[in-house]
Fold this protein.
Amino acid sequence: MPDIADLIKGVLRDDVRSVARAISLVENADDDAQALLKGLFPHRGESLILGITGAPGSGKSTLVDQLIGRLRARGKKIGIVAVDPSSPFTGGAILGDRIRMMRHSTDPDVFIRSMATRGHLGGLAKATGEAISIFEAAGKDVILVETVGVGQDEVEVVKLADLILVNLTPGAGDDIQIFKAGIMEIADIFVLNKADTPGANRVEIQLKAMLELGLKDKDLPPVVKTVATEGKGTDELVQAVFNLTAKKERADLAARRKKLIAWMLKDITQEKLYGLIGRAVKASEFERYIEKIFSRKIDPYTAADEIVARLTDKRSREKR
Amino acid sequence: MPDIADLIKGVLRDDVRSVARAISLVENADDDAQALLKGLFPHRGESLILGITGAPGSGKSTLVDQLIGRLRARGKKIGIVAVDPSSPFTGGAILGDRIRMMRHSTDPDVFIRSMATRGHLGGLAKATGEAISIFEAAGKDVILVETVGVGQDEVEVVKLADLILVNLTPGAGDDIQIFKAGIMEIADIFVLNKADTPGANRVEIQLKAMLELGLKDKDLPPVVKTVATEGKGTDELVQAVFNLTAKKERADLAARRKKLIAWMLKDITQEKLYGLIGRAVKASEFERYIEKIFSRKIDPYTAADEIVARLTDKRSREKR
């Protein structure tokens, strides 16, 4: 059991082993984790939160790997929050991605926290917020939030970054069709990866035409072409990120951080309420409700009302 | 405002307009919806719940469309629960899918409920369970639960079906690699769609070899080859579904239904608790907490504790 006060001090001076231990502690999510996060919370960093999203197979992981390399070459310290659905469909791919990023695994200034193990009950905002808290307290310069752009929660979490990169690939079939539906509004920079593929120029022209149509009065987000596997264009991409960051309004950044806080606070409150249910209704009682619902003796709405009533009754009884 | 008792009667005799109205009512999720669902709940049908999952682009929607046609030809009444992440990435594709299924839209015995609008707070099990309840009460023979196989919740929900079809496509890159990670265990039938593509036979051989390796002592799930765009193989698929359904153990089916109930009950309880927070903590107070967290005057864990305490305090005060 590490001493929490010491661990906090270690994270604050960006001690490699302390940061690693803090992340493990938070992954296990016990009371110590909460004490740690409370202790780290007052220490705000000046980290840039960079969201990266793209459809599966768009070469996003290779791009992230290249970005890490370029940011490290500029002396930036990096924390990575990898939001991957822990789906059987992508399980293999995720493993591959992680291995690809392993070349940075001996670099003490590159930390990855994977979100692959999240449960049914949401908690994505909480887990992301906690990872960001640790990285901010440790003084990371850039925090990369990497998501697969499928699933509403994954898209929501990338919206909370300071700057959002959307990764496209030519030849991925109906890219343009797919990306029509709302991605334009959230992208700060488009990365057209695999730009050496036939048809890349056509896709670029289509994308730009679409952006001009869709975002009439606004600044068009830059489109940066890369060939991540060869490292081409990634320096230009990093430059575009820093140029755009410098132009971002403080108020805009604050609004996004507040959205993350609101979402996170709801997650945490929900989890605490859930803990209360567990204490008010025993597992065996919950099983009895399930049997009664299965045999249609009670409907699930009435059962839920009874559970909620029991929770608040118990609390008021304890108070007497 | 429809009279709920009349609406219940209408659904029970599978009146087209009543089923449509019931689905709309549940989508709007107000108090009437709960009264309706409570009223329908005791009426259990003998519906077969069929889960269909597959990676985006595997031609799943065309396959579902074909399945609907074949099932209708056998006189089966069908309800469809379409679980689509309402992601900007898939928005366009979903629209396309819906249009493809439109050819059944004039058929009164084919109903689709789409789950595209679900919020952050989960609720997928609740929404799925509710749609199933309506379809069961209306006496649908087959309820199709269609999911995109990315995202943990989507995979979880398909697990709750009586029978699970997993849709594969040759040439979708690293299909085999991707499907290694856990899909074998949940599939009852593999559908190798686009079977006229070069390489289809190779993929079939690989898949079967993998299944034999992975599921040593169990019955191997059948692999059915289809060309959904031409309707090839879909009759064989429907036959395979009914053959396998006849062999399924009652206990196994009951266990899956109970899992759905447990998950749904948690969703409903959570939602009711959430409603309580809304009443205990005003929006303006919640905003104040966000501001205080943003300015690091309070950490989100302490804020959540205060919110939960206020909730239970208020309840006990009301009781006095």
Notes: The beta strands of chain A are 48-54, 78-83, 110-114, 142-148, 163-168, 189-192, 223-225. Residues 85-100, 117-121, 315-320 of chain A have pLDDT under 50 and may be disordered.
